[in-house]
């Protein structure tokens, strides 16, 4: 049903008032899903209109969008979207920053450790000396990434593992907030064979010392980029410091669409939200800011690849991975990160007079106020 915005607002407010353990009845579920779909369709249309304004917009086999030199599109993203996916290697359960957009916001002091001497790969625990066995018995991934949480908290433990994967010919990229990067540890990472280092520049609001560390990294590591959730703060500060950032010689900028879970949702209370394919919940402005950012990059001919790492991209990522693993047609682990739809999160966008549904129709009989909705 093409529920009206007014009716969607009324029903979503009612659903938000229900006890958390009270499930919706089937027709109520239809109403809730119709409201979410209407919001999503309108948000998609707004983003598409902004994309049409980006000169030279490119697509990676229909799975994502970017602008800039093809040669600078991150190989780690190609592996993620076209290869055997994003194989995560986890070690460090601590972080030296507290970002309001972090998926572990408020939980950083309660993150379970991987274990002394162990690395988590594919959901299991391994010691560094097990990697030869792992590589000799399993199909090698096209790429791996070092995540969870800030690897530079104990970066000296990473050199040997990086060297082993490098010897196996596997592309490796690492995420960091850049605060603890030094010429010494960047040189060691480059010598070990790290292919790509991505700075979460938004974690420090584009701090000058981190921008300087990006330039240092470029001396020793083949590819250096930025990967940061797109927020208004990052958008504004980046443009203010744009010349200094681009002067570092970085190769790519991944504009991640900010998506929210139970940990960080409260930090964005009151913002207009939408849900992509009943999966990730995001502020509508995150994807729209990315489109505007890409347009600026294309019009000014920045010599970097600027990638729209959106919810759509992550949806494509998981479809690709499941297919590579031999999953059935349509198999995916992409899903909502809340135990039930966060009905209250949609109220601000439904209260926004500037946000319009593409088309509306009256509720059918049996779904209207006063009807018994079963």
Descriptive report:
- There is one protein chain.
- The protein has twelve helices and 13 strands.
- The protein is globular.
- It has two domains: 1-69 and 284-374, no CATH class; 75-250, TIM Barrel, CATH 3.20.20.
- It is an alpha/beta fold and 374 residues long.
- The chain has an eleven-stranded mixed β-sheet with strand order 1-2-13-10-9-8-7-6-3-4-5, with helices on both faces. It has a two-stranded antiparallel sheet with strand order 11-12.
- Strand 4 and strand 5 form a beta hairpin.
- The model has no long low-confidence stretch (mean pLDDT 96).
Looking at the overall shape, the CATH architecture of the largest domain is Alpha-Beta Barrel
The biggest sheet, with number of strands, parallel, antiparallel or mixed sense and barrel status, is: 11 strands, mixed
CATH topology term of the largest domain: TIM Barrel
| Global Rg | 22 Å
Total count of domains: 2
Q: CATH-wise, what's the superfamily of the largest domain?
A: Aldolase class I
Mean pLDDT: 96
The oligomeric state is single chain
Helical stretch tally: 12
How are the elements arranged and paired?
Layout: H1 5-17, H2 26-51, E1 58-59, E2 65-67, H3 75-82, E3 87-90, E4 119-121, E5 124-126, H4 131-137, E6 143-147, H5 159-167, E7 171-176, H6 183-192, E8 196-199, H7 208-220, E9 223-229, H8 232-240, H9 242-246, E10 252-256, E11 273-275, E12 281-283, H10 284-300, E13 305-309, H11 311-324, H12 347-351
Parallel strand pairs: 3-6, 6-7, 7-8, 8-9, 9-10, 10-13
Antiparallel strand pairs: 1-2, 2-13, 3-4, 4-5, 11-12
Helix pairs in contact: 1-2, 2-10, 5-6, 6-7
